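To: structure subgroup
Subject: Chain for Friday's discussion

All,

I'm putting the inputs and outputs inline so they're searchable in the archive.
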Amino acid sequence: MLENDTVSLLRECNSGAQMAVYSIDEILENIKNEKFREILISSKDAHERLGSEIHLLSQKYGDTTKEPTAFAKGMSWLKTNARLALEDSDRVCADLITDGCNMGIKTLCRFQNEYAAADEQAQTLCRELIRIEENLLNDTRPFL
């Protein structure tokens, strides 16, 4: 059970980290405030670094990484572009990032509970990903 929970948690964390990078990339070209842009780039870098660690641990367990679903990416793209078509502003971008962070935190916490038998290293990586999401959420608030 331990290995199955570990692999499952790592898959979900990897997917979440990739989705965050994808979403930040989607938003970046619309950001006007330089400080906000720096926050997003820093968070993207943190997600990519942690995603690499998750990928390496997944390989240790003989697993491949899980990509975000095409549906999830498509819905993210649709929501982002629809909202920005109505109002292209940093406030709208901050709102979209906030929604994504909240969804990511909620989903990761659910998977952490669901795969509670995962090894400590996988649990630690999951907690770190949640922390990165919480930091981005807090850093984005001034731009709402």
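Points worth raising on Friday:
The chain has one domain: 2-143.
The two ends are 43 Å apart (CA to CA).

D.
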